[in-house]
Amino acid sequence: VDRLAWLLDPSVNISRLLSATGASSYSSSTRAGPQLPVWPTSPSAPATLPASSVATNDAANGLCDGRSYHCFISHNWGKDSQGRDNHLRVLQIARALQKHGVEVFVDDWEAHRYDSVDEAIVDGMRRSSVALVFITRAYIDKIEESTIEDDCVAQFNLAKRAPGIIPVIMEPELMQPSRWGWNRVYAHLSGKKLVDLSRGEVSGLPGILWN
């Protein structure tokens, strides 16, 4: 069940819905960021920018189709299988990306601009070129349970519609997609280029993304 389905209707004017909070007038900084790749479905194929972005002014900074953010981050809270705080690790990654000139949408940071979390998630995904999905066993379980109130489920449903999607592995035992189980996460992400941040330092993500 997708609680955000009504907001995905093209006839719904998100800018009008958000006008009361001023969110519709917000735009990211104008500094030029790196060319963030959109990974293809085949792990062996080269990563390239979407062809649609080449003809736009945003091609120079890795944004596509006039979007404001390079990436939207979807993750779960709580401890991972190694006893680490997954939320804090993901925020470290987000800050590392920002230091490299990447515009990041984290709903925790942006929610104050909106009337609801749902509006923040939908508008953030619409404004982002790539969805970064941080894979843990708990995240997979949330998607499988598909609880309508769960933000991870709402984010995942939208991430599948993003111009690009990159699975970021946060637990070492999940580097093999065959260990994810037969579920929606496996069906949609197992063929993508995987980024391994399951061990040690998490601030190396920018370099991993662009190489």
Automatic annotation (TrEMBL):
InterPro entries: TIR_dom, Toll_tir_struct_dom_sf. PROSITE patterns: TIR. It holds the Pfam family TIR_2. GO terms for biological process: signal transduction. It comes from the Eukaryota. Residues 67-189 form the TIR domain. Residues 25-44 are annotated as: Disordered. This is TIR domain-containing protein. It comes from Polarella glacialis.
